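Minutes, project check-in
Item: structure for the 304-residue chain
Input as provided by the requester:
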Amino acid sequence: MRHLLNPLDFSVEETNRLLDLARDIKDHPDQYAHKCDGKRLATLFYEPSTRTRLSFEAAMMNLGGTVLGFSSAQSSSASKGESVADTIRVVSCYANIVAMRHPKEGAPAVAAQFSKVPVINAGDGGHQHPTQTLADMMTIRELRGSLENFTIGLCGDLKFGRTVHSLISSLIRYPGVKFVLISPPELRIPDSIREDVLNAHNIEYKEVEKLEDVIPELDILYMTRVQKERFFNEDDYLRMKDFYILTESKLALAKKDMYILHPLPRVNEISVEVDKDPRAQYFTQVQYAVYVREALILTLLGLA
């Protein structure tokens, strides 16, 4: 039995096979429509989510399976003080596989220790978001044809952005990927990512404050929102939330074949006028996330 708690839980070869499977699901959905007949996915979401939770549910239903679970801690026994360990012991009696989102870093890892079924980390605090990373990687690979030899700019909240942390950790395993880290000083990537991931593997990167200074050199621009729920101080959030807004005028400086990604939800960091630009691929990213989660469910259940 395997879990997915961190994007590095899968080797490069396993990741590539999973992305190949996701592509096949995209191209031949009917062939997979009954792969999970009789199987149940439990979605244990201790903090709010729209895309990730519904994407997992859509993925399981596309495979012929069913879904049970809760969408907030307040609607679960956690509100009565039940531990994650006890919850997973109970839920793994009901379901064949579990997707868990939790505000505390490491909570899905705790669940995996006590679960009788595979556990998927659907986001834990500011730590990791491996299934979003797989969706990001599928999107980049489908758009560019490869996960090698490109420059990606990560812009916005790089301190609390778990999608950014997971994506950097995954992409350093592919040759020729360069990183441009665009953020205000207060929201720079954590030292653990800078030192233990980028510097430790001699990865080429630079840190800048102004998007306009570097957008011409990017092949991928990965925008993120400033996450209000990660801030302890309302004034700090209000000061930072409008630091970066991607507009048509800024986009005019970019390559004609640069693609824009965003893990969503968007607040105002990408102007809606950008949506009509063919380089805006964040809604394609949403669709690919369903295929990736279908592939992951099949893989962890041994049905691929």
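Outcome recorded: The first helix runs from residue 12 to 27.
No further action items on this chain.
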